[in-house]
Amino acid sequence: MMRSLWSGVSGMQNHQTKMDVVGNNIANVNTNGFKKGRADFQDMISQQLSGAAAPTTEVGGVNPKEVGLGVQTAAIHTIFTQGNLQSTGVSTDVAIQGNGFFVLQNGEKTYFTRNGAFSLDKDGTLVNPANGYRVQGWMARELNGEMIVQTAASPTDLTIPVGSKDPAKATLNVNYACNLNKNTPEIPPEGATPADIAKGTWATEQKIYDSFGNEHILSIAFTRVVGDPNSWRATVQIDPENAEFTQTRVGLQTTDGQTNEFIVNFDNMGTLRSVTDSAAAGSNETGEIILQASFAVPDANPDEDGNPYRQTFNINLGEIGSMRNTVTQSASQSSTKAFSQDGYTLGYLDNFKIDSSGIITGVYSNGTNRTIGKIALASFTNQGGLEKAGDNTYVESNNSGQANIGESGIAGKGSLLAGALEMSNVDLTDQFSEMIVTQRGFQSNAATIRTADTLLETVISLKR
After folding, report:
1. Angle of the 2-27 helix axis to the 428-460 helix axis, nearest 10
2. pLDDT band at residue 285 under the 50/70/90 scheme
3. Strand-pair category, 310-319 with 173-181
4. DSSP notation for 155-215
5. pTM (two decimals)
6. Whole-angstrom distance, CA of residue 330 vs CA of residue 236
């Protein structure tokens, strides 16, 4: 009778523990990134009344007689199934799709979390606003004019330089492509009317920038060479309305001693064959046709010889013999124009965005995008072995294994989704069912205690 009494007590105690787990799950049904717990039971040690007997030639074997002494909690598992993703539209909210944890730093202590509800502090550092823990990753470094993220380095705090400047960059390359109409009429060398000039000219314009970030207009006018059916004369001008001040020159190897004109030659298939500058230095080799152009930059200090400071950039007409991203000549409407240039004016960081690999890209007011950094993720051999540290965070334990910190999408780490949060993986239907089962289990064990008490009362009353 006493064994059943204590069995009932252990049953009530452990069902209370399970109810605590269920209650905590329900309490965190709206906690971002929360992972539900699950309590598992196992029986306690059993008292053996008699042992097992092996069979003999006369009788068969006898099973052992054992009385169980109750129940105990075998484990409380953390279930790391994926929670639903909820769009928030907040650029600093990040959700993990798949395995992995965000890495947070508090002094020398490292924490891990699935909650990606981040924000910026006054210094622009990406943090968890609930406790100030700093999100870890890698800041980009400028190498040869390009922003590079070195993920092999140790993770550090991520800082978004809000309001920072992106210095102006002078145009270094302008790329031309598309078609010059073979049927464009030649402009008569004498007596040409304005209408003749307009019909025989394909004029293009493109914005470019000097080293100060000032905007200029690059104008190239293409006209047919009289008497040569497959050649076009190109006249280059920077800021045509002030051409006498900009003093534009263009050449194949240098602009020294050159004028502002060059000749483009095509073969009978309409593909680019060569270019001739004003010094008649032809280029018929296979490869890209790149001309140098230069102009006098207004309001700039003169060079060492006292001459106006000239800015040089490249004009790329495409590859000889190619039809792709190259100037061609065909009997269809003219469409040649500059499709790209690499200069820009001064800009300020207006916004930033995070892609699925965790790269943080700054969006500047001058239209440029620059890599700022990359968010780190951690994975574990046994993520179920992590210890909960409060604030929706985890820390390493002896059975979790060391954190493998690296890029998303590598070594079992999932991808990221910015502007969204991972919701709790608690299913209320499942938890309410668990609650009912737990409640009935508790009541049944209470009934066991009451029944055992009745038996004890009967025994006590025997002496009356």
Report:
1. 160
2. low
3. parallel
4. PEE-B--TT-EE--B---EEEEEEEEETTPPPPPSSS--HHHHHHTEEEEEEEEE-TT--E
5. 0.78
6. 22
